[in-house]
Amino acid sequence: MRNVTNADLTLFLRDLYADGGDLLRTSETGKLYDKRIRAKKDLLETLPEAQGIRSPMAEELSAEDAVHDGLGNAIYSLTEAILVHPLVSTETRQAAAMGREGFITNPGELRRSYADEAATALANRPKLNKHKAALKAVQVPGGGSLFDWVKRFLDSGDAIDGLLRQRATQLATAENASASGALRAATVGILTRFRESLRDEMADSGSSLPADYDARLFAYLDKLSADRTAAVARRGYAPDGTNSTPTGDGAGPDKEAPQPAGDGANRPEGGTGPVVG
Q1: Is residue 79 domain-shared with residue 164, that is, in the same domain?
Q2: What is the DSSP string of 202-271?
């Protein structure tokens, strides 16, 4: 289980107790380990989303970023149309140039990190009132003016900033990485000892447990572990971006995208078999 993450362990233990732990307690070993395994499950589920299933505020950030980027593209496209149109007035052309040069000079800016987008909105806010009259003179589809589009664009950047601050607060008040790593190690240790003891029980001549009991009980964890091991072999590094034992799923510095067991980078497949440790 070298490469399994806290997210993997959380998913496995949720599945293990989906039936209330009845299958686990079918064995005498399971009855013995039940309380300790359940305690680890409860502790794993208290971890912040960044160390468990997802990065905090990932969905909220993604939704707000879609609004931000959509507005940015709309502003750029509108100003582009005005600037290339041969029959618009000089005043309208100048207003479009202000919108372009002051707020969105290139659509590529919309592929920058959340933090960069928030910082750009903060820096550009003073320009809004300065060019208010000119921007209001440019009407836009659906009613309103270019000023309204630009203001909402900046407001969205500010909203991203607010979500980033909320995420920072959640992470600051959460368990630190070393505590998370210690919990992962303790959970893997208990599961490994349980599985070894279970195999001793199954090997006993008086055991009534079915031959595939161990495989059925650990099927999900074996699959998660095999997937992680295969991914590490392909990439050459663990899920946290290092060659060391991971403590959770890593997240890149830029915009998040969904991960397999739960966060990611800019704008995680297969094999089975028992794994003990």
Answers
A1: yes
A2: HHSTT--S-TTHHHHHTHHHHHHHHHHHHHHHHHSS-TTSSSSPPSS----SS-----S-----------
